[in-house]
Structures are given as structure tokens and as C-alpha cells.
Write a structure and sequence with these properties.
- With 183 residues, the protein is of the alpha/beta class.
- The protein has one domain: 5'-nuclease (Rossmann fold, 3-Layer(aba) Sandwich).
- Helix content is 51%, strand content 11%.
- It contains eleven helices and five strands, in the order αβααβααβααβαβααα.
- Strands 3-2-1-4-5 form a five-stranded parallel beta sheet.
- The chain is globular.
Length: 183
Amino acid sequence: MNDGVQSRLARRQIIVLDASIMINILQVNSWQALFRLDGIQLTSPKVVIEQIAKDRRRATIRKSITSGELQLVDESIPMHLLPLFPNWVRRFGAQDATVLVNALALHAVLGADDQSLCNEAKRHGVTSVVGTEWLLAELVRQAQISIGQGNRKLGLLKGYRYVPQVRCLCLLCGVPCTCAHAL
């Protein structure tokens, strides 16, 4: 686990989520568990919420917004980032460019799986970037789900064309496991 992310989570840390992470977590039925994580406030720009096409998913996310679990962030672009925004829109699309701007403006953690977006974020000062696997590992680390459940959820994502970066979440969360990596 990224030491910078872990130490920043000792305080209430803002994570700005992109659509792919929200869809992945919804796919494996772990959406509500995210809001039980200690030290984390999940946020997203409205433009990203609108990108999520299936009505069922969008309704679930809107319910989380209404309840205050998921915070919407301001979509205005700070003046110092304005010159970069058109290039980011061309490279990543309006939704991901908005997520990047908000992570920078809020000094927040970027929640994204797109490696080129993550690299751009780091190049411009986002100090912590997390993806779907990190969020699943954090659910395991905080005992919201077991390591077995987390790994099954990771396996389910393969059916949705997600390519995991680790074979077992124990490599990210430090929770004891009986996999070949832990022995």
C-alpha cells in the first residue's frame, strides 16, 4: 500500500472517483461498503455521475448523493489549471479531465484505473492515486469484507474486461492470506 495514501488516511481524506471505479465497485456489489471505510470521504464531479449510463447504477449513486455519503464536487476550473484543461479534454475526455482538475484543486487522492490519467495526475502534483484494487484492499484491511471475498470480487471483475494488477489483495492490504504469495 502506498505509504503516502495510508498516512493521509489517518485524517479524513478526500478521494475523487472516476466513473470506471464506481462502475467496478457497483459490479461487485461493494458500493455501500465503501461508505463504511474510516478516514475516507468519497467525491465525484456531477459530469462523471452523468457518464454512468445504466439507470440502476445511476439511481444507486444518486441515492448515495442524496444521503450525503457521496459528495459532489465543484466543477469549476481554477485559473492556474485553465491552460491545461483543453489538452486534458482531448487526451482523456471531459469527465476524466474534470476528475483530474478536482483532485488537483482539492489536494485530494485521485481514484482512477486509467494509467495514463494517473501518470498525468502525478506529473502535475497529485501525490496519491488509488484504483479499484486499492479500494477492494482497503475494504479488506478495514474488515468490511474478508480477504476471500475481496479476491472473489477481484475475480468477478475479470468478467467485465478488468485486468487486475495483482493476483491476490493480500499484496496490497497486508492481511494474512493462504495464497502462494503469503506462504
